[in-house]
Write a structure and sequence with these properties.
Layout (H helix, E strand, L loop, with lengths): L6 H31 L13 E2 L7 E7 L1 H4 L10 H13 L3 E5 L10 H6 L9 E5 L2 H5 L4 H17 L3 E5 L14 H22 L3 E3 L1 H4 L1 H6 L1 H4 L9 H19 L12
Helix pairs in contact: 3-11, 6-7
Amino acid sequence: MRRAPSAAVAAVVALSGGLLATRHVLHVQAGLARRRIGKDLGEEAHRADRTYKKKYGGRIELLVLGDSIAAGLGAETARQTLGAQLARRLAKRAHRAVRLYTGAVVGAETSMLRPQLAGLPPGYRPHVAAIVVGGNDVTHRVRVADSVRHLAEAVSALRDRGCEVVVGTCPDLSALTPVPQPLRALGGISSRRLAEAQRAVVSDLGARAVSLADIVGPFFLAQPDEMFAVDRFHPSGAGYRRTAKALLPSVLEAVGPPGAQPKRPLT
C-alpha cells in the first residue's frame, strides 16, 4: 500500500509550484514591459560635447560615463541631455569653462564602463567624472556583487589617474509605470539594493555617491508626465534637469571652490 505524502512534502511541492508560476508571471510581465517601452527613442542620444562658457577660462574637463541616462536618451535636444545640463550649471557655479566629453553608451551595464574608459581619446585627462549606471544591471538580472565589482574597477581606474568621481546611484525602478506589478515592485527593491551597494563601494574608494532614488525619485513618482520622455522609461529634459541638479553639489565639491584652478590629473 502506498503511503500518502507527508504534510512537509506536500508543502514543498506546493511551494515549488508557486515559485514556478511566479517566475512564469514575471517572465511574461518582462516581455510585456519591453513591448510597452519599445524603441520609440531609438538607441542614439543627442551629442552635447563641447566647451561651455569658454569666456571664463580655467577649463574643467568633465567626463560622463554610464548608461542611457548618462548619455541623455529621451532629451528633446542636445541642450537638455544630462551632460549638457550638468556642464552648463557647473560652469556657471564654478565660474570656469567646462569641456564635456560623453563616453556613456545607451543600454550599457556596469561591466561596460571598462570599454568606455578604454575608448577615451589618447591623452585625455578628466578632472571630474560623473557616472550613472545600474538600471540595466537590474533589468538584466546581473548579480549585485558583479555589478559593484565592475563599478569599483572603473572608479579605481579614474582615481588612479587623479580624477575625482561622482556616482549617481541606481534610480528607483518602481517609478516605471510601463512595468506591471508585481515586477515593478520587485524592480524597485532590487534597484535600491544595488544603489546601497554602489554607495558603499564608492564611498570606500574615496569617491562621492549621490542617491538618485532619494533626491530625484520623488519627482518622477509625483510628476511622471513631466519627468519621463514619451517611452515612460527614460527621463525627459525636465527629468534630466532634476538629475543634473542632484549631481551638481557633489561635482562642485569635487572640483573645488569658485575661481580656483582645477587639480591637474596625474598622467
